[in-house]
Amino acid sequence: MPLKVYQSLWATEQRRPGIPERPVSERFDKVKAAGFDGMAIDLGAMDIEAARTTVPEFARTGLGGLLTAFPRSIEELRPALHLAKDIGSPFVVVIGQVMPLAVAEMVPVIEAWMRIGREEGVPLQFETHRNCITNDMFATLLLLDAIPGMRLAADLSHYVVDREMMLPISDAYQAHVTRLLERSDSFQGRIGNRCQVQLPLHFPQHRPWIEVFRDWWRRGFALWQAQNPGDADCIFLCELGPRDYAITDVNGEELSDRWEEALLMRRWAGEEWDAALAAKTLTPGMARAV
Prior knowledge:
Elements lengths: L2 E6 L15 H10 L4 E5 L5 H5 L2 H7 L2 E6 L7 H10 L5 E3 L8 H18 L3 E4 L9 H10 L5 E3 L2 H6 L8 H12 L1 E6 L17 H21 L6 E5 L19 H21 L5 H6 L1
Parallel strand pairs: 1-2, 1-8, 2-3, 3-4, 4-5, 5-6, 6-7, 7-8
Helix pairs in contact: 4-5, 8-9, 9-10
């Protein structure tokens, strides 16, 4: 039951004005050399035609593929699923850009995307993300109640900001997070607080939030391990975004080294995965009580 840690191609961007990005092939090589298991392609950061040019890089480097889609209509998801097959993505993370106001109107949208996923033979996970159909934690919880087959990709940094969670995390929010983790099939690495979605990881004032997120990852891993067979792979995606996700100083320079932070986060995720494996008595029912 291995944990596979991926890096995001988007997260390898620097976005320094006047300085060209390093070639995609070099970024693939760096991720491979660092020992990551795969690379994730984000269709919110590049269009599908540009994304198709990365297909040979997966074959060349042997990195696993993962795709995040931002469909603006029901049928727009389909070509993203075709690309996912080309890069060997085991599932597609959906950040749906069809956003009805009412949960009752969201349900048929989610169900339609799930139907397309079944037709194409590609499992879907809906990311807990802002500015999409799962923008709000409470609405997402209602969607989970209404659609038993709906599965999530957990990036809880978005919901900490969405709900302006304060420390210590309340029992009510802990219970909500547990419900999300019970339905999550992959996990994303970013640490936020109630006002900022992506915090520098070496600043001492952020340690309490690091502890919160590491605890959530461990709980999520334990729930995943209880729900999946021993030979299944769990994917943890390091996704520390470039500016404006990354906080910058007065000169527009980032306050931290996101590459080093990704390596650190990979280590933390491995430690929490091992801790969850060691606590084999943890069950979904017990997790709510912890």
